[in-house]
Amino acid sequence: MHSLPDNGVASPSGARKGSLLPSVSLRRLATFIAGLLVAAPAALAASDGTRAGEAADFAGSHTCVGCHAAEHGEWKTSQHHAAMQEATDATILGDFEAGTFSKDGITSTFFKKDGKFWVRTDGPDGELADFQIRYTFGLAPLQQYLIELSGGRLQALGIAWDSRPKPEGGQRWYHLYPNQSLKAGHPLHWTGSDQNWNYQCAYCHSTNLQKNYDATSRTFATAWSEISVGCEACHGPASGHLAWAARPGEAASSAGTAKGFLLSLDERRNVRWPMASSGQAQRSTPRTANKEIEVCAPCHARRQQFSAAPETLGHLFDAFRPALIDTGAYHADGQQRDEVYTYGSFLQSRMHAAGVTCSDCHNPHSGKLRHTGNAVCTQCHASERFDTGEHHHHTAGSQGAKCVSCHMPATTYMGVDPRHDHSMRIPRPDLSVLLATPNACSACHADRPATWARDVVKAWTPALKPGFQDFAAAFDLGDRRAPGAQSALVGIARAATSSGIARASAIARLREFPSAEALEIAKEALKMDAPAVRIASIAVISNADAATRTALLVPLLRDASRLVRMDAARALAGEASASLSAADRAALDSGIAEYVSAQLFNAERAESHTNLGNLYRDQGNMLAARASFLKAIELDATFVGAGVSLADLERAEGDEAAAEKVLAGVQKANPESGPVAHALALSLIRQKRTAEAMVLLAKAVEKAPEEPRFSYVLAVALHDTGKRLEAMDQLKNALVRHPYDRDILFTLASYEIESRDFAPALGRAELLSRLEPDDPQVARLIRTLRGQRRQ
After folding, report:
1. 3-state DSSP: the chain helix, strand, coil percent, rounded to 5?
2. Cβ-Cβ contacts under 8 Å for 274 (sequence gap 6 or more)
3. Are 674 and 710 in contact (CB under 8 A)?
4. Beta carbons within 8 Å of 644's beta carbon, 6+ residues apart
5. Which residues pair with 85 in a beta bridge?
6. SS3 category, 99
7. Is pLDDT above 90 for 204?
8. What is the maximum span of the chain, computed from C-alpha positions, in angstroms?
């Protein structure tokens, strides 16, 4: 293993004392928990051909070249090979001779000194200082640079080098956040927590990355087997395979089909794709595993990591929590929006459903496509049918004649990096008209409205081809909480034709519509093979009463996937665990231990300690909960969730003054936060300091207009202080942003009744009845209003 060299900088001192549990340090707690963990990874490894009890070692990519020279040579040309490198004349692409970049009043200067590469820029204290570039990060179309700070931290500089050719706009310095003013102390400033390589970037740019964070000293001793992405990053540690290769007769009997590796990437072995009469190829045998996809996913998915154990290779849900088709990250129709990489998009595709894997299209060693241009698609889609003007309706050889232009439109991330959407969809400009989603036609014909594109496509194909992704309308209704949302989401969740990620995403949205039907859907989905669906179902069931949670979730404490076990255990923590048998209690304790270990894996993050604090609170251990919340605040005062949770804890213990003190401190660190202003205002209202609270309630709405609850609470406060007309105006303004918010609609109707303005009140009540058809309170409101109109 290689690790960051000692730079002679002393570890930070003066860290606040405290631990997650009384008298137990984080390091000792982690060791204790490790002894409780279920040995699922070892069992998985043993079942795939390696000897139980043997720990495989990383040997290095150089050990592969003797037998796999061609593959090794391809890998040497890949971006994987150059994902991270020491900063040298051979690896640095940026202009360090006379390079400068100015932004927000700071001029950063890039230069060389004593054969090393440096940048003079604003540091952790906001002052200009010289920092050595230790490593390059990435290659094309941009290259970032890593700077080592104290405590073993490597930080990614926000000024990157555009490595594209000059005619394409490259060969320049530029900032990754051009529209944000980032000062020292902001999480996105290059010195901040969200630019920390050890946490954010390292795992996917190196091999066998071990973060090695010490919570006591708050330092990293991060280490790796190879500085970049080597052979063993995808194939796993190779010592067993080398032994197999050296002694084939002796080792073959125990190595199984994996030949000494943890798993065999054999899903394409002996598979053919014969062309059917439809012009579409079909897989000769169904794909029955996701090993290859789940080997690629950790670094090509939007996800959270909670383990770096090599044994989890190919078992995604034992080390990662992949994102679903979430609002903000994706458009309602599943097209990429924020930086979501590839995995979540590909799972939506008809190609994934047909059995395609990553390496059907990509050479896994070079990273390049197996064929150029449309030829990569005509492997499975007959060129005489699909690579023709009759299909694409564009001039041969033009941009519009490229398959990817229409079916894999690109979105540019990091300023210069266009990435193709791997959901591989039929263009739907009609959905753009209805739902304001993007479409490939308008990406090229930006001067034309979506209605034009819709009409052109309709002229080409009068019979609408909706495509494989059929959830756009349901997700749009769910995201807006509009009438019909629940039944539409139920339809996607129950449809056998829906992809697993679409079903999971529909179930996850049903959590916003608690009902007996949503609970029944989640109960049914617990039986599905896809871990993502079971995890989404747990989230729905976690809102149920303790008896229901116990009845439904206890079996999942023994699930094959660690993430399912963890989430089930977390949902059962507290009152739901009171009636468990001894065996079930042991399974719950194991699941809780896995959950705690997962949080401690990211012990440098405030979010993890906040999660632990909430767990300990639910378990009734208020001392440990308080310590966790304090640790989170100490790590990152900008993470407001920790302070709000601590204030809630103080309030629950009857000390509102202490809650106010906590929130005042959080507000000082986050003066522009709407949620903090709102929480502090509520504390003041409980203390009968209404005038002070009103100012903060208004600020919360101003800073966070996207939160309907803040507008609702401000309106109620205005009404209760005798300002009914102002309260009604506030609610009407809020309805422009949140037209289907139940609380806002009901409250505004109530205030309109007080004003004897029955007609608009009835309209709002009728809308509520469409949103909540089974709500008796809404039914009574309508009867009252209709009675008033008859008088």
Report:
1. 50, 10, 40
2. 281, 282, 284
3. yes
4. 663, 666, 675, 676, 679
5. 136
6. strand
7. yes
8. 96
